[in-house]
Amino acid sequence: MSSFRFEQHGTVGKLILLGDAESEPGSEFPSSLRAAVRQAYASDIRVLHLTSASGNVAVADDLGAIGDKGSKFLEAFAADILASIRLIEELPVPTVASVAGMALGGGFELLLAFDFLVVAESAMLVLPEVSVGGIPMAGGVQRLADRVGKTLATRFVLLSEPIFGKVAVDLGIATHSAPDGKLEEVSDELVRHLATGPTLAYGKARTLIRTWATGGVAAADIISTQLGAGILDTKDGAEGMAIAVAAVRKHEPIPKIQFAGK
To answer: Keywords in UniProt for this one (predicted)?
Structure first.
């Protein structure tokens, strides 16, 4: 039974982590994640939203089921998850993840691949690996450090300290928080906003941010003009610019524009 299911609802892609008794995440986690992400690539979605049927995000209900398989299995398991994380980061559309409960270990690492992370105020994010003699192997250390800096990453990784919802937003780990019971409402509103936004521009802006994160300002400068080339010749670019110019000339706020194409 797969751990993930991909569904398309109009222009919204849903990446659902299953949590029923028959499909607890386990050794099939990497392969089902990879298959679901590939389905997302092949679709015409304009935003991808990761949710969990159980409210929690973890690679296994019983970590011993993975740990008992030995180091070689664990290394391949983590490498497969990291490959899917990189695919998610390279999607040409914005991505959102939401979590109501606990994001543990590899589950937390997966959340860090998404552009937007919406957390319930009581949600708990933790990388426990070091506290039990291991290390996070699916990219979580470096992605957490990219968001919070070296000092805080050292604290959260080496001490395996939990990070709760409100604090996660304050630290820049999560982008949005929601009162308990309102997570779906808040995340769905964000997803709808992105699904009706300028998908092409979102993709180019994501590329700029990713390039800056890996290569700094100079690297982003090199590609910024190339990315912007011809954008005003697209339907979205031309219509968006015309509406913005008209609003500015009337000394009015630029309205939220709904885009139908890419």
So the answer is: Lipid metabolism, Lyase
